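Lab manual, section 2.4: Encoding a predicted structure.

Procedure: take the sequence of the chain (212 residues), apply the prediction step described in section 2.3, and record the output as structure tokens. A sample record is shown.
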Amino acid sequence: MKRISALLILLMPVLFAVQAQNKADKILEQFSANMQSKSSITAEFEYRFENTADGLSNSYNGILNLKGDMFRLEIAGQIIMSDGISLWTFLPDDEEVQLNSLEETEGLFTPAKLFASYTEDYKATYNKEYTIGPKTIHVIDLEPNDKSQGFTRAQMELDKNSLELISFSVFDKNNNKFSYIVNKFFTGKVTDDSIFVFDASEYPDVEIIDMR
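Recorded output:
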């Protein structure tokens, strides 16, 4: 379960840290600006893992809340939260919380940085446009310039009108496919900042492991 949450956080920058070209570039810039304009973001999503060659598959439902530098991710029986300074990983079934400093957490790319910048690490290409019901969907392919990365390609789908994420898939070198399908998307829903901080007084039996 710990690997799932880590994977989510590490793959999130792929959504936005791209140097796109032509049509894909324009769409991704509009998408990024649209997301950064929101006071808060809440996304209910489904995570799917598939390997058709080996007949493997599983899925989990999750929810992500973002507000400024703060975030809260709930998936696969764990809750990861941050107030922008500290990072708590809460495992309710194990009655355990791992506390880290967000700034010093090695290799962590937080959701707070999702919409902030573009780099030259990825090549973005406009794939196609299709319709499903009343929606028109953009399909954009992402390819890492650094071939040593853990994934070979990624693909994201955006609602053409609302510029909101529909789905995001990552393909690795072992024929695994990791997909994130957004089922519900809300803005301005987060009003209580306390959801981004672990309150030890509410869980007196939980062990806090301070790893700072």
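Check your result against the sample. Residues 2-16 form the longest helix (15 residues).
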